[in-house]
Automatic annotation (TrEMBL):
Domain GH10: 235-594
Keywords, ordered alphabetically: Carbohydrate metabolism, Glycosidase, Hydrolase, Polysaccharide degradation, Signal, Xylan degradation
Organism name: Triparma verrucosa
Keyword Cytoplasm in annotation: no
InterPro entries: GH, GH10, GH10_dom
PROSITE patterns cross-referenced by the UniProt entry: GH10_2
GO BP terms: xylan catabolic process
Statement: the UniProt record of this protein carries the keyword Hydrolase: yes
Stretches that traverse the bilayer: none
Broad EC category: hydrolase
Full protein name: endo-1,4-beta-xylanase
GO molecular function, a single term: endo-1,4-beta-xylanase activity
Length: 648
């Protein structure tokens, strides 16, 4: 740096003084023109005729300086963004930004791109992956002599042609020249990168997760049945529906149709619900999960393969059934299943990111009995031991349904058939209440792991295990039995630690982990969703997301729904990151802070209703103020919570 006098916004670098004399030395033909008692410039004549502050009094003789100015380096700077650093298509960078050697600027859209060695977004159709900047690095041409301001913006951010230097005239002005008359600013050094700009936080789950070094798909589930008639759930209006769909497209890049892709709706080529959701996903750059190909639950299958579509003693059938199910031989069952798998996987081939190939096959005998053996002894019609999938570590008990036990290998067969017709989609097994490896979930957790491990050992191509993870706030006390009606509650691990231990053993056998149907609900509709409940919900959402971010094999984070009040299954239990006002709850804020540290810093003062704020309240949205709970926490709220814990 150099020292300078600061007057009226102008910088005067040190000029050479004659020892013990208050005089300046000037080039021949120049004089020192005075502006004030402490400031002047060497000029042939006074250049400030329009500035009355200049006295234009000759103040020094025209002696040549003893030392000539030294021009700075003349090499043009390399204006490149580092690989994986920033937007190489933003604003002023367009057309001039370049990438480091071996990298190219890959386009997402007209306003955004990244320097990458290869396009990493093969599963995101929103990325065009068109190379828009060369590799290796290029250089930017500089201003010609006396052409333009090389100090624009107060930065030495431009360069000069060979033999020229950017001489500073004022804080915001300089010119490329050989030399000024009698003073210079220091020579410009060629910058190696663009000026540092403070990082801006991502504002959506989708953008924040996509910006990670290894992008994480953030998913949600919708029910296409509500699209034609949004009033089916809580009397929603068309305006509500518009907000709902816009929020899904903005916040998520992975989508699953709740029911419409299941066999009951897809047979006889009636795929309208599934197709509507798929086309919505494709239109908004979202990946799509098929759910689910094979499910033993009778009501999910068409009448002709629904084992509950039989007449009772009075000649009546369940209301959903239009015709009675025939009696099939085992060979006929294999043929029907294989044909269904072929029809669906072939029809959607190349358009799906994933298929839940088999859904919920493992027995629930652990809930109310001491063991599966005891359960089977009491209810032999419900479950049985699978000799095919049991192993040295654990026995596997499967649910009895139209597939099993008549088709002992139906799970393996479903995966094999699906892979024949769709070679690009990830294939997975989807299950519930097994995600914790200890406590009351342990027995089902071990059986599910043994099933998946058996498939791997058999050579069946299974890519992921899908954890539904339908939990409630009682799981805050999982170690002592919260969140279940099971009579066996003891656990050596807290809930999140137990889930991590389970994820680790799947990673060890090379199987990915997907959170497929996550919900974190109140335990009862009669409970009050107060500050403590919201904080606990946020803690569990963030905790599970943090586990996924820390595990390389966790490759999807999806909730079963996303807005309170839009699903029948959890109606009134406020199970989602977004509230009925379509604003992010504390769970959303905490999840965003895990995905983007910059968001945590900036949106501790949050544009959303909840989240830590500054006591000046400037950061709160209109109608809210910053209320202080204690020295460590505060929130933007409409009023102080009715809670003695709050200082306010």
């Amino acid at each position: 740096m150099y020292s300078a006098l600061q007057l009226d916004g102008l910088s005067l670098p040190n000029t050479k003084r004659v020892k013990n004399k208050n005089k300046f030395l000037a080039l021949p033909g120049y004089t020192c023109e005075r502006k004030s008692a402490t400031y002047g410039q060497c000029k042939e004549s006074c250049p400030y005729g329009r500035d009355p502050a200049w006295q234009c009094e000759t103040a020094a003789p025209t002696l040549a300086p003893t030392v000539s100015p030294t021009p700075g380096p003349t090499a043009a700077p390399t204006r490149c963004l580092g690989t994986n650093s920033g937007n190489c298509l933003s604003g002023a960078n367009t057309g001039v930004a370049c990438c480091d050697a071996g990298a190219s600027c890959e386009r997402r859209d007209e306003n955004y791109g990244q320097c990458k060695t290869a396009c990493p977004y093969g599963n995101d159709p929103a990325w065009e992956c068109e190379t828009v900047a060369p590799s290796p690095a290029t250089t930017e041409l500089c201003y010609a002599e006396s052409d333009g301001n090389c100090r624009a913006g107060g930065q030495v951010n431009k360069c000069c042609d060979e033999s020229l230097t950017c001489w500073e005239k004022a804080t915001y002005y300089g010119e490329c020249n050989e030399a000024w008359a009698c003073y210079t600013s220091p020579p410009t050094t060629s910058p190696t990168s663009l000026p540092t700009v403070a990082p801006q936080p991502k504002m959506t789950l989708r953008d924040a997760a996509s910006n990670l070094t290894t992008p994480l798909p953030m998913g949600c589930v919708m029910n296409a049945a509500f699209i034609d008639d949004p009033a089916k759930v809580n009397d929603h209006t068309e305006a509500d529906l518009e907000l709902y769909l816009a929020l899904a497209a903005k916040q998520y890049n992975w989508l699953t149709e709740e029911n419409g892709c299941k066999w009951r709706y897809s047979w006889q080529q009636d795929r309208s619900r599934c197709i509507w959701s798929l086309e919505f996903a494709e239109a908004h750059g979202m990946d799509f999960r098929g759910h689910a190909l094979i499910w033993g639950k009778a009501a999910s299958n068409p009448d002709f393969f629904d084992e509950e579509c039989v007449e009772d003693a009075d000649g009546n059938m369940p209301g959903r059934c239009k015709s009675a199910v025939p009696t099939y031989t085992v060979d006929q069952k294999y043929k029907i299943m294989n044909e269904h798998v072929k029809n669906e996987s072939e029809y959607y081939a190349g358009r799906l990111a994933a298929w839940d190939v088999v859904n919920e096959a493992v027995c629930d005998c652990w809930l109310s009995f001491s063991s599966c053996e005891a359960f089977v002894a009491a209810r032999p019609d419900k479950c049985g031991k699978s000799e095919r999938y049991s192993g040295d570590e654990y026995d596997v008990y499967l649910k009895k349904n139209i597939f099993w036990p008549a088709m002992p290998d139906y799970i393996s067969q479903a995966f094999i058939e699906t892979k024949k017709y769709d070679t690009t989609a990830s294939l997975g097994y989807n299950e519930y209440k097994f995600e914790a490896s200890t406590g009351w979930q342990k027995q089902k957790s071990d059986m599910t792991y043994q099933l998946v491990k058996s498939l791997v050992n058999e050579g069946v191509l299974i890519d992921y295990v899908g954890s539904q993870t339908h939990i409630d706030l009682g799981y805050m006390n999982y170690k002592t039995g919260g969140g279940s009606t099971s009579n066996r509650h003891d656990s050596e691990l807290e809930y999140l630690d137990s889930v991590k231990a389970n994820m680790d053993r799947y990673a060890a056998i090379g199987v990915e982990w997907h959170f497929t149907e996550l919900t974190i609900a109140m335990e009862s509709v009669d409970d009050t969703f107060d500050t403590e409940a919201e904080e606990n919900q946020a803690y569990l959402y963030k905790g599970l997301l943090d586990l996924c971010l820390a595990e390389e094999k966790c490759t999807c984070f999806q909730t079963w729904g996303f807005v309170d009040g839009w699903t029948n299954a959890y109606n009134g239990l406020l199970a989602y990151p977004f509230g009925t006002d379509y604003e992010g709850k504390e769970a959303f804020v905490e999840m965003m802070s895990s995905l983007d540290p910059v968001y945590q810093k900036v949106y501790g003062c949050s544009a959303y209703l909840y989240g830590e704020c500054n006591t000046d309240s400037d950061c709160c949205t209109e109608g809210n103020s910053c209320f202080v709970k204690n020295q460590f926490y505060s929130q933007c709220r409409t009023s102080c919570p009715d809670n003695t814990d709050w200082d306010c």
